[in-house]
Design brief:
This protein has helices at residues 3-15, 18-27, 47-50, 70-81, 97-103, 112-122, 128-146, and strands at residues 35-39, 58-62, 87-93, 153-159, 166-167. The chain has 168 residues and is of the alpha/beta class. Strands 2-1-3-4-5 form a five-stranded mixed β-sheet. Helix 5 (97-103) packs across helix 6.
């Protein structure tokens, strides 16, 4: 991938769209996203596209298996306390490589903290779709436990790679 040419395509897209240009110019002074989405790093899972959103509308945390560890907790705290996010979505997905690796006991370098968290969440579940659902649900519950003072909405959804549908 040629990074510079891709960036030029993005710039042209913005320059040729008055709405996007105005929005970008407005966002120079700060962001006010409506929702925090915690999702997998999987390249097929693009929350801005899945939720049909534009610049500045979604604050995103991407991590393998949509797992929440220390760094993610700090980012969630920032979203809640600084950006005043009032909606948090944990978005799992079908065909997740991290879930697959845990279910099949595949060891990958540096995956241990993520694998341990997923294993804690899913236990002995061997159905990958069900495991993705349980993992996302437990991560949403974990946010509720870590931020009991948070009054906004916390939910989870599963993005189906095959149909593009979000469901529980």
């Amino acid at each position: 991938m040629d990074i510079k040419s891709k960036n030029q395509e993005f710039i042209q897209k913005i320059e040729n769209n008055r709405f996007l240009k105005d929005k970008r110019d407005f966002l120079v002074n700060g962001q006010h996203p409506e929702i925090l989405v915690i999702c997998c790093s999987d390249s097929r899972v693009i929350p801005e596209e899945i939720l049909s959103s534009s610049l500045g509308e979604i604050f995103v945390i991407r991590t393998a298996g949509n797992v929440i560890n220390e760094g993610e907790l700090a980012t969630i705290s920032y979203a809640i306390n600084h950006l005043h996010i009032n909606h948090i979505l944990v978005m799992g997905h079908t065909h997740c490589g991290a879930i697959h690796s845990v279910i099949h006991n595949e060891s990958l370098p540096y995956l241990d903290p993520i694998a341990k968290r997923i294993k804690h969440n899913i236990g002995d579940i061997s159905n990958e779709r069900e495991a993705s659902q349980i993992n996302a649900k437990k991560e949403a519950q974990y946010i509720k436990e870590k931020f009991p003072e948070y009054k906004g909405k916390i939910e989870y959804q599963i993005y189906d790679i095959e149909t593009s549908l979000l469901t529980k």
